[in-house]
Amino acid sequence: MADVAQSQVSPHGHGGETRRDFLTLTATAVGAIGAGVTLWPMIDSLNPAKDTLALSTTEVDLKPVQVGQRLTVAWRGKPVFIDHRPPEEIKKAQDVDVSTLRDPQKDADRVKPGKAEWLVIVGVCTHLGCIPLGQKQGDDRGAYGGWFCPCHGSVYDTSGRIRQGPAPLNLVVPPYVFTSDTAIKIG
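The structure assignment produced for this chain is given below.
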């Protein structure tokens, strides 16, 4: 019976645990931590740069923009057109028979509820990426009073919808929210 008890005890006097087991676990833990510390900068470099993140949103104060005036701001390196539309321009955009449009969208789907006077669109022609005219006083705004791309003749209405020319789609409405009655955050 003494022989059985003697065989269950390791040569170091402990029941199955050895100094080698402890060193193996310690070395494995230190190696895993070292690998994590070494790989973290590479993993973190896959995140967008801080200057890129700063461009991902743009806040715009709308107080100085008068009715009938248009403003251009930059968002993600693209121009964004903000139009403070007068009531007659809104009515004209709402009265369009959507079934006649190439890219059918109601005016109400292109503006925020209760804020139809503010149209916010990306100012890049959907044909070949030109910047349409119509932001400045005196610019050619085309037959529909919106924007005109002189490169290939695309004409957009007062809601930024394609009405004539080769552009296949309406001007894009970027993601935006009203942060107050006179301020928006794009992106």
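Interim note for the steering committee: The longest strand covers residues 78-84. The beta strands are 58-61, 70-75, 78-84, 118-122, 145-149, 154-157, 162-164, 176-180, 183-186.
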